Amino acid sequence: MPGMRHRLLARAGTVLGAAGIVAALTVAVPAAVAEEDFYTPPSPLPAGANGDVLKSQQATYNNAKATRIMYLSRSAKNKPIPVTGSVIVPNAPWTGPGDRPIVAYAPFTAGLGDQCAPSKGLTGQGSGDPAGGFQGSYVDALLAKGFAVAQTDYEGLGTPGEHTYVMRLSEAHTVLDALRAATRLPGTGLAKKAPLGIAGYSEGGGAAASAAELASSYAPELNIKGATPGAAPADKAVLAKSLDGGLYVAFLGYALVGIDTAYPESKILTDLANDKGKEFFEAARSTCTGDAVSKYMFTRTSSLTKDGRPVSAYLGQAPFDKIVAENRIGQAKPSMPVLVEHSIFDDVIPYDTGKQMAKDWCAKGANTEFRTLLGTPLVGGHATAMPDAVRDSAAWLDDRFRGKQTTGNCGKF
């Protein structure tokens, strides 16, 4: 087993590195404002509108102007929360029609520890986790098209509290409010009515998809031209079975922490977890992606519960049945065109999960295009398909911002 673990870790490191290296960003921080102070929200939290900027911190990012931000958003329970992120504007001019577009980038799984916050990794102050390369490669592809990027850290990453990992409402709110914050941040040159887009992969694909289908009710004033969710974890019930005991079981552990945080009535730690389970969840709360994958691979969730049942066995009973239902993506019609992509060799999130989400949107009359990605078979399909998703997302959004129409391919997949 140790030999297998080392081989898998080496393979995972190669795969993660292939997605790109995080761009170096040097933060110009006033001497009186240390990094940890920036991520500490004001207390009490000021009143304001969703997307209002609470504080900002200037930085530079290669050939771009970057600003860390803290802004107001809403939790899964619709309570006001502080959220951090970044707004990055390329120095090169936008060559398309109208105002420079802004794309909300919903990050790939970074982890649960505050040191894993994507805005820290993008600013060269993060954990050094290899998964950070995914964030940089996606941001760079969007900037290369001339788009500004509004990146969210989500609820509880960097800021106090736990990260509500893959929780639909919270992640949708933080993605949409990052766009609002970008249009309100002074000194960027971005227009308040700029054309907008949404992009993300894996956890970010789920957040992007959630934002796409909730935009019309939560942020109807936003001028969103398109969304590109890739490898979206749309159905948590499927993932509870597919991840259990596998290489990426840590992501299932992350999801349980997310549920426990967003829905404390679930009482996962107090009522369901045994001592080993409590230790697992407590330790997972401080990890970033690479560390969590290496520590917890092949863990069976039946070894973490008091009655020896796997997590999937609980999902049909209260309160988990309602929680799973509320977090299923595909329930509402996106008001903008969407490009959904998923690797047929995905070893983390089953291919049929993303395909079914696209079909659900088609059934509601959404302008939906679904594309099958490849990636490598067996181990690594999820990660190795991402470069193609990044390229396709940037190109597809560029077409939308340049006024090219799309009719999707519903009924053909």
From TrEMBL:
<dbReference type="Pfam" id="PF03583">
    <property type="entry name" value="LIP"/>
</dbReference>
<dbReference type="GO" id="GO:0016042">
    <property type="term" value="P:lipid catabolic process"/>
</dbReference>
<dbReference type="InterPro" id="IPR029058">
    <property type="entry name" value="AB_hydrolase_fold"/>
</dbReference>
<dbReference type="GO" id="GO:0004806">
    <property type="term" value="F:triacylglycerol lipase activity"/>
</dbReference>
<protein>
    <submittedName>
        <fullName>Lipase</fullName>
    </submittedName>
</protein>
<dbReference type="InterPro" id="IPR005152">
    <property type="entry name" value="Lipase_secreted"/>
</dbReference>
<keyword id="KW-0732">Signal</keyword>
<feature type="signal peptide">
    <location>
        <begin position="1"/>
        <end position="34"/>
    </location>
</feature>
